[in-house]
């Protein structure tokens, strides 16, 4: 991992760059934060927006173009773990990624040898607040992961995922203009959408 190089030519260690990336202001300074995360050894696009309260505890992280990582998002993983967040992914507050597990150990200690896993989130996906993503898992492109969902399986492209038994296709991926739809006499189902994610 490389550190942050100051204008004086001095280098700041990667762990210090990670610390600086988490300082307030929480929702401004996105490019500065992306640069600090890059200097920490992560592959973060300069247009990615990571809120300062998001934390990353793993060796390999990729955040794509124009992605948004919300408040109190946590990404964990041990040796060999990797999390890949595609372009234009939106991650709501309180989402947790667990890219690591343990083998089942013997009778005296059930948590055996640890190992990293891989989690991949496809482009254009929206992950609702408080969701838990457990690797290994791949979430396809254009998915909606409902608030509070626990994802332990692969999710196909363009689906709404609430739980392992509640997966359905996204019916309309076109942007909605609720005010225009209401004026045209179309029902306002935005309250249902709000509850969904």
List keywords for this structure.
five-stranded parallel β-sheet, seven-stranded mixed β-sheet, 197 residues, flat, single chain, alpha/beta, 4 helices, disordered N terminus
- Low-pLDDT regions: 1-8, 184-197
Instruction: Tell me about the largest β-sheet.
Output: 7 strands, mixed
Q: In angstroms, what separates the terminal alpha carbons? A: 36 Å
Q: What number is the mean pLDDT? A: 83
**Percent in strands:** 25-35%
Q: How would you describe the oligomerization state of the chains in this entry? A: single chain
Q: Calculate Rg over CA atoms.
A: 19 Å
**Main β-sheet, spatial strand arrangement:** 4-7-10-15-18-20-21
**What would you call the shape?**
flat
Describe what you observe in this structure:
This protein has a seven-stranded mixed β-sheet. It is built from four helices and 21 strands. A hairpin with a 2-residue loop joins strand 20 and strand 21 (166-169). The chain has helices at residues 14-21, 30-39, 178-183, 190-196, and strands at 4-5, 11-12, 43-44, 49-50, 55-57, 60-63, 68-69, 74-76, 82-85, 90-91, 96-98, 100-104, 111-116, 118-121, 126-127, 132-134, 137-139, 144-145, 150-151, 159-163, 166-169. By secondary structure, it is of the alpha/beta class. Residues 1-8 and 184-197 have low confidence and may be disordered.
